[in-house]
């Protein structure tokens, strides 16, 4: 009955958000008459990452504006259904919405993953030769509803729910991790707070402005979960555009967890967005800090080039971080513009790290 209760909590929260959003749109539609233009870009979902290898399926990306373009940035949403050569199933919807005059900003996802991964254990010095195949299924619901309290500053609550089950593995090396992995099955339910200062000129592909986010989640049995832990994240981004159109983008990302943290909820180094070149989860622990810098140049209207570098690591405790021993990643990539008006790119990146590398083929910028 506990699992049923957990699903009731998440379903109720989801219904409340939908009602809120529909009410907001209805009020705006009544108060002003304008023509909404929705640009749908259906694409064959062809992607590649070290975590998935080749993935294929269908993607629909929608870009639209819920107000006046002069006062409201574009919103976007996407629906993805894909299968990968690693026998993974991905069903995902994501949204990033601005209501008229940006009074509210909503973002989140509803997803299902049947997702075998490679598991290397916990810590920043795990052995690559000890990798294990580990499979699981997980349902994810996340949503935040932020209110603009002053220009470009948004504050509000957020909720996340995920249920992980059907863990499968046959360990050869990391036998001591069996209890920890087995105990990772179950439900996480977290309520938190987010504050965002956002002056980016484009959410999908920023060339000017800043993005500053501080976020908290408090997971616990009182919210219907099986684990008690807290998460604090800090995401700081800055974009500079030069007279010739070239762009420099920088990001600092920190994730800090305390409490009873299941293996999938730990901070994970690597992936398609930061520390590209490292398998996502190659190193995992309670804490993570990473810094990355990217140079972007538009060669011709539909083709661009990027070069990037990153520096970061994971650690059990914040005080144990050794900045001098952080891991590095460098790489370069191409950008193919598929929607010029909204600057939506297909990106092709290749990253190199310490005894590792990764190729990435994805939609939209890494940050």
TrEMBL record:
Subcellular location: Membrane
Record-annotated membrane-spanning stretches: none
Keyword Hydrolase: no
InterPro entries: Bac_surfAg_D15 (IPR000184), TPS_OM_transporter (IPR051544)
Bacterial surface antigen (D15) domain boundaries: 151-367
Swiss-Prot/TrEMBL GO biological process terms: protein secretion by the type V secretion system
Keywords of this entry: Membrane
Gene Ontology terms for molecular function: protein transmembrane transporter activity
One annotated Gene Ontology cellular component of this protein: type V protein secretion system complex
Pfam families, sorted: Omp85
Record PANTHER family: OUTER MEMBRANE TRANSPORTER CDIB (PTHR34597:SF3), SLR1661 PROTEIN (PTHR34597)
Protein name: BamA/TamA family outer membrane protein
């Amino acid at each position: 009955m506990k699992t049923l209760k957990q699903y009731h909590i998440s379903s109720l929260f989801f219904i409340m958000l939908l009602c809120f959003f529909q009410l907001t749109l209805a009020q705006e539609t009544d108060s002003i008459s304008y023509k909404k233009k929705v640009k749908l870009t259906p694409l064959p979902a062809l992607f590649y990452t070290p975590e998935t290898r080749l993935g294929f399926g269908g993607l629909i990306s929608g870009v639209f504006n819920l107000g006046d373009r002069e006062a409201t940035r574009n919103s976007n949403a996407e629906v993805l259904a894909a299968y990968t050569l690693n026998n993974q199933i991905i069903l995902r919807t994501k949204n990033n919405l601005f209501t008229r005059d940006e009074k509210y900003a909503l973002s989140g996802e509803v997803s299902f993953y049947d997702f075998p991964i490679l598991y290397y254990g916990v810590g920043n010095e795990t052995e690559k030769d000890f990798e294990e195949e580990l499979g699981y299924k997980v349902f994810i619901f996340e949503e935040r509803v932020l209110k603009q309290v002053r220009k470009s500053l948004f504050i509000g609550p957020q909720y996340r729910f995920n249920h992980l089950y059907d863990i499968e593995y046959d360990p050869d090396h990391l036998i001591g991790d069996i209890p920890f992995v087995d105990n990772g099955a179950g439900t996480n339910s977290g309520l938190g707070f987010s504050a965002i200062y956002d002056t980016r000129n484009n959410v999908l592909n920023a060339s000017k402005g800043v993005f500053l986010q501080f976020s908290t989640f408090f997971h616990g049995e009182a919210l219907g979960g099986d684990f008690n832990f807290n998460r604090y994240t800090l995401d700081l981004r800055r974009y500079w555009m030069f007279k010739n159109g070239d762009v420099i983008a920088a990001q600092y990302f920190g994730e800090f967890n305390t409490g009873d943290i299941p293996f999938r909820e730990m901070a994970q180094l690597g992936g398609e967005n930061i520390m590209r070149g490292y398998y996502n989860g190659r190193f995992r622990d309670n804490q993570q800090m990473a810094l990355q810098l990217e140079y972007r140049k538009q060669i011709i209207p539909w083709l661009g080039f990027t070069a990037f570098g990153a520096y970061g690591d994971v650690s059990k405790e914040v005080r144990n971080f050794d900045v001098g021993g952080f891991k590095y990643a460098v790489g370069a990539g191409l950008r193919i513009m598929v929607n010029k008006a909204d600057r939506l790119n297909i990106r092709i990146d290749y990253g190199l790290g310490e005894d590792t590398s990764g190729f990435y083929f994805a939609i939209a910028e890494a940050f």
